[in-house]
């Protein structure tokens, strides 16, 4: 007989099944744009953040800074780009992008400034949602315009 045949294992522990809790909470990142950071071709400092998004989900991104005029660039895995600048509405401290994913994969959020040479601290908040958020149409500008090629995020 095998030694384990004589062992007593007792009753198995109960297994808890997690109930669905809804979408994950928003992710908040604090950072700084400073001299020595990567720059866009046009000279603005830039920080890149990646997030996994499935086709059909919504990516909601908000960028706030008291130090510079924030500018967001959201890129799909195949480099489709959405630029968002809310300063035309008089808002020089925050900008927001709400984009529905047209493909699954790693999406890139580029935190940058409206003008070259701007720097300082920022707070980036992003979340991936299964449902269309109420603010889905605010602040969205698709870039490049139809028929034009532009790659501002090259470093």
Work out the number of β strands. 9
Number of helices: 0
Shape: elongated
Q: Which H/E pattern describes the elements?
A: EEEEEEEEE
How would a textbook summarize the main sheet?
5 strands, antiparallel
Oligomeric organization of the protein chains: single chain
How far apart the termini lie comes to: 69 Å
Beta fraction: 35-45%
Helical content class: under 10%
Helical/strand content category = mainly beta
Uncertain regions spanning at least 5 consecutive residues: 139-155
Integer average pLDDT: 81
Please state the CA-atom Rg, rounded to the nearest Å. 22 Å
Give the neighbour order of strands across the main sheet: 2-7-4-5-9
Overview of the structural elements:
There is one protein chain. With 155 residues, the chain is mainly β. Helices cover 0% and strands 39% of the residues. The protein has strands spanning 27-33, 46-53, 58-64, 70-75, 81-84, 94-100, 105-113, 120-129, 141-142. Residues 139-155 have low confidence and may be disordered.
